[in-house]
Structure formats: C-alpha cells, structure tokens
Specification:
mainly alpha; 3-stranded antiparallel beta sheet; globular
Length: 285
C-alpha cells in the first residue's frame, strides 16, 4: 500500500488494529498455556485455551477461518464488521480481566514457578541488542522499544496505551511483560470497538485492483507482532516481483538460546527456552 500509494480509510485501519490486538492476545494465551505445560502445570493450559477459543470463534465468524485468515486486503478489509460481532468482542474484553487474574492467582506467586524462572535465562540489555532481539523479550530486558509507539503505523498513535517493560532480564520478567500486554491489548481492542461503532466510513478502497498492481522500487514495512518485530521487504519493477524478505522475532530469539543456557542446569532448559516464545516454523526459512 505504501509503495503503490493506496489510501486506506481510518475505519479499516481501526478494524485491522482490532484484529491484530485480538491476535496478540490469542498468541500470548497460546504461549502461556504451553509454557506452563512445559513446566509441569496442566491447569493453565485448559484455562488459556478456553479463553483463546473465544477469539478463534470471533475470527471464524468475521473471516470464515479460525486461522490463516484472508480478511485484510489491499485498500482495507474485505467487508465491514457487524455490530453483533463487535458486541461479542466487547463482551470478551469485559470478561477477560477476571480470567487473567485467575491465571495470576495460579502462576505469579506460585513458589515452584518463581523458583524455576526468577534469575534464570538472564538476557541483559546489551546482549539483547547484539542479537537483534525485539518484542516482549527485549522489553523484559529493560529496553522500552515498541514499534507501535516508536514508529506508529495504522492508527496506533491515536490510541491510549503504554508498552509493558520489566528490568530483571530473566524468564520471570518475560512472563510478566506478556501478562501486562494482555491487559494492554484488551484496552486497545475496546478503544477500537468504540471507534468502529461510531464510524460510517467505507472499509475498502474499491478503486484498487490488486491483480493489476504496478509497483516500482523497494519498501520495508514493519509491525510489532506478538513475538517481536516482523518486517517484510519488497522490491519490484512493474508487475515483476524481484525480491521478498521476511524478518521475524522468533528467528533471532532462537539464536540467543546458547547464551542463556550457559552454566544452567539441564532442568532449566525448557523454563528458559519456553520463556522466549519461539515458534519454530517461523524460524525455519
């Protein structure tokens, strides 16, 4: 859209942000449940997946798919979002804080969890920068860098939120950052719902014909994805696509693991690696 000078309505941008933040919540819930399962606790998995399922139902109703959505398109989104779906989203937002409090009641002050995460897998700020770590893993090392704030895209500069940041650099800090981001994303979603309900704008620039796009030059676009900065570089001449390169948070996070487990006990391996929230298909390029 940037390279082809395609205009997107503000309403469509708010819808995109709403979907992206719901996806951030779903991603963090997936991480939380599986991370605790890796550490030997099964109950959080069922609670987290129970709440994530509500998001997937919303996405299925909105896009037709639980995953691999084909909803965003050049010029906006494929169709408007109904008031009924918006009401379901707001109900989810209203219900979730109590659910997160339940997670914390089970996890945050649990002496076993604390003993396995506090002081483990230390990722100091300078080392995180050297390894190009981004996202929650970077902010848990004390660096306040969130692309939604530092390089705002879509309508993030119009939304009221603060990046989550911790300073102890360990696995427990990475857990705390993602818990804080659950609350933050819920607030952003609620703000988006309010705007979308009041807007009468179109959600798709119908003058755009994606199949006939002619673009010239090179452009890099970056977003603050759940696991860190995700960037895509496109280089093209007319209808000929010359190069596409993706850069994801997991690809860089997995490379720092040898540094984090040096001198650690074998039993700490999953507690440390799991705290990075690495998705291996994202690493396998």
């Amino acid at each position: 859209e940037k390279i082809a000078n395609i205009e997107v309505s503000k309403k469509a941008q708010y819808i995109r942000v709403l979907c992206m933040e719901l996806n951030r919540i779903a991603s963090h819930l997936l991480w939380l449940g599986t991370y605790l399962l890796d550490l030997g606790a099964s109950s959080p998995l069922f609670y987290a997946f129970r709440d994530r399922e509500r998001i997937l139902h919303i996405f299925e109703e909105l896009t037709g798919q639980r995953m691999m959505y084909n909803y965003f398109t050049f010029g906006g989104v494929r169709h408007d979002i109904s008031l009924e779906i918006l009401d379901k989203i707001q109900k989810f937002v209203d219900d979730m804080p109590a659910c997160i409090e339940d997670y914390e009641a089970i996890i945050t002050d649990n002496p076993i969890f604390k003993s396995r995460t506090i002081g483990k897998g230390l990722l100091q700020k300078n080392r995180a920068i050297q390894y190009s770590i981004t996202g929650p893993n970077l902010r848990a090392s004390g660096l306040n860098l969130d692309f939604r704030k530092s390089n705002p895209y879509l309508v993030y500069d119009e939304l009221d939120f603060e990046p989550a940041i911790e300073y102890d650099c360990d696995a427990f800090s990475r857990y705390k950052v993602r818990i804080a981001e659950l609350y933050s994303s819920l607030s952003i979603v609620s703000q988006c719902v309010k705007y979308i309900k009041s807007s009468k704008e179109e959600v798709l620039n119908k003058t755009v014909k994606p199949i006939a796009l002619n673009i010239n030059g090179e452009y890099t676009s970056s977003v603050e994805a759940p696991r860190g900065l995700t960037s895509c570089t496109v280089k093209a001449e007319g209808r000929n696509l010359l190069r596409v390169k993706w850069r994801t948070g997991s690809y860089y996070a997995v490379q720092v693991l040898p540094e984090l487990v040096r001198d650690a006990e074998m039993a700490d391996l999953m507690a440390i690696f799991g705290s990075l929230d690495v998705i291996l298909p994202e690493v396998d390029k």
